[in-house]
Write a structure and sequence with these properties.
five-stranded mixed β-sheet; Arc Repressor Mutant, subunit A; globular; alpha/beta; 16 helices; 3 domains; two-stranded antiparallel ribbon
Length: 401
């Protein structure tokens, strides 16, 4: 194919996608409207997008500020991916570097941390599940509920609206943040999206990268290393893997942990990283001797070892103790705050611990916290609020299970 032919084919592909966008807008398609809204936040009620504005939506979804720069990169790309490729990731950490690596497809980041908070509505419709997750995110991270709900809607359209997508590439590492997200995405692909034609689905799932010591996640990698993964680690998603993800998600959302424990006992050979993550996830259930989940236990252990620590020191120590690091600092906050409310952790100055000020506080283990850590007191007798491990609800003693 000559350079002229390549350019002409690209422009034809782009024009087809733009016409599909404009047609969807004219038909009041809510998902298409959201795509325009993400690029043009101040849409007027009588807004009527042009072809140029549709091109800009496609360019922005691929991570480019202008259509001209996106087209230039498409022509330089050398056949790595195409305008009909969508990259799916549970965060924005590699979005810019994928562009630097020469990958030009659109990028969808689904940032809902499914490894924390309730999954009790995970087998309902996507809209009902978003309601549950938005309520949790709003309360936990001090966001207005409408804003939290809108963010989820905007993010999930990257998976729920696959029109015009011929290649869907899922990027993930081995931890529970990524692998529980993967399980839900595979569940959606196998159920909610089963009645529509699916694109070719490919998976890049790694727990190590040559030359990278202490690999934690894809966010550590350079553009060159991500390009290497694209070329060396990308594999077609099989029907067996799709079914394994569906089963894993169903088990994760059950109100009792037995089905998930049974699933991990029967090796999920097709998705070994998911199996390992599920085993780690189960360790968040209350330990029989003190009622703590593993992350809670490690936080108290780190504070006992340190004597006193700021949030950054605690986070660093937790990363060293954690067998499968998965928490970001905001996620650490949502684990820490119930321990503080229950009197296991002391903050100095002795003010109310809030998301905006906790980083500057000196944290230490209380005498009660030491008793719980050593198994003299069961944490569930001190809990002030429920917590969740997937679909399992853990209540303070006296309120239920």
């Amino acid at each position: 194919m000559t350079v002229v032919d390549h350019r002409q084919r690209l422009l034809q592909d782009i024009e087809q996608q733009c016409r599909r966008l404009l047609r969807g807008f004219d038909q009041d398609d809510a998902l298409v409207w959201q795509r325009f809204k993400a690029v043009y936040p101040a849409l007027a009620a009588d807004f009527q997008p042009s072809m140029a504005e549709a091109r800009q939506v496609l360019a922005a979804e691929a991570g480019f500020a202008s259509f001209e720069r996106w087209l230039e990169r498409l022509l330089e790309n050398g056949g790595l991916d195409s305008v009909r490729t969508r990259h799916l990731r549970c965060g924005h950490d590699i979005q810019v570097r994928l562009k630097e690596a020469g990958l030009v497809g659109s990028f969808a980041a689904l940032t809902d941390p499914l490894c924390i908070g309730p999954l009790t509505q995970g087998l309902t419709t996507p809209s009902q599940f978003m309601d549950e997750r938005a309520a949790y995110i709003s309360e936990t991270f001090d966001l207005a509920l409408p804003a939290a709900r809108l963010r989820l809607e905007n993010e999930y359209q990257g998976l729920l609206d696959l029109r015009g997508v011929e290649q869907l590439v899922i990027w993930c590492e081995h931890d529970t943040y990524d692998q529980l997200s993967l399980a839900y995405w595979l569940y959606l692909l196998a159920t909610a999206l089963a009645d529509q034609p699916l694109p070719r689905i490919e998976l890049i799932a790694v727990d190590q990268v040559p030359g990278v010591e202490d690999f934690i996640g894809l966010g550590q990698l350079s553009a060159q290393q991500l390009r290497w993964l694209w070329q060396q680690s990308r594999r077609p998603l099989t029907l067996v893997q799709l079914e394994a993800g569906r089963q894993a998600w169903r088990a994760l959302c059950q109100p009792e942990a037995e089905s998930l424990a049974q699933l991990t006992q029967h090796c999920i050979a097709s998705l070994p990283l998911l199996e390992r993550a599920l085993r780690r996830h189960l360790k968040e259930l209350p330990a029989s001797f003190n009622g703590l989940g593993l992350t809670q236990h490690l936080i108290l252990q780190a504070l006992m070892d340190a004597g006193q620590a700021t949030a950054s020191v605690l986070f660093s120590r937790l990363q060293q103790l954690e067998p499968m690091p998965y928490l970001g600092d905001a996620m650490l906050w949502q684990v820490l705050i119930p321990l503080w409310q229950s009197g296991l952790v002391v903050a100095d100055p002795a003010a109310e611990m809030r998301l905006h000020n906790w980083h500057s506080m000196a944290l230490s283990l209380s005498a009660t916290g030491r008793q719980v850590l050593e198994g003299e007191v069961d944490y569930r007798s001190l809990m002030k609020t429920p917590r969740w491990v997937g679909g399992v609800t853990i209540l303070p003693q006296g309120e239920g299970s």
